[in-house]
Amino acid sequence: LYALLLKSANEVGNALAEHVAGSNQAFADKMNAKAAALGCTNTHFTNPHGLNDPDHYTTAHDMALIARAAFQNDVVKTVASTRTYTLPATKKNPSGLTVTMGHKMLNPSDSRYYEGIIGGKTGYTDIARSTLVTYAEKDGMSLVCVVMHTESPNQWTDSRNLFDYAFDNFQLFNIADNETRYMDSEAVEVGALNNNKAFVDIDANANIVLPKTTDFNDAASEITYDDVSENVVGTLAYTYAGRQVGKADIVTTGAVVDGYIFDNQS
Question: Which residues of the chain fall short of a pLDDT of 50?
Fold first, then answer.
């Protein structure tokens, strides 16, 4: 993974694909299934390395969905945030081989460095031109930036400008800390009841992103009860200016009230 993500070693992509799935094609099938599961709607892979193929394509939006999922994986996050790594010794490199991250915005000594960058991946083919996927965190907000089909050094300057715009103009709201509209409502009682025991509560890790010129209550919300699981009884979905900006599960707390434990079965 270090050779693949730091050095863009296509032969390593082939080796990993064969190790995991038996062949490049079988691994591409797994890639396509995963992309569909992540909500990608205009993506199709034919190989594990991205070299030109008319049936190998994606979009900036789909690649952002893929990157968001990838950076939720601790191993990927660790590897993609590493600046240098020494590979173990091999027959051709008995002293090992040091590989360096190609993503220039990750290196504090580089003029293209951007504070808050966690990691990412560069890309280039003669058809795709320069591409860049970058993950950054600042003020508790995590963003994925995707730049495609540009000429170097625009991938660096465009990513910087997009990150600056987003971090300067948007803010993160924790839903559980700010939501008060459903306290004691007939639809659902969220938070403490009169006896200070909550039947259900809002997922404490759920957030929404809104312009800094707005307030949390400027986002419209709606409760649905379709996506129910063992500890989830419903979902709060938030929209602003006609776009979904986040959602939160309504989760059971296991509170015992008058001898009864509240869960989605009772």
Answer: 185-197, 262, 264-266
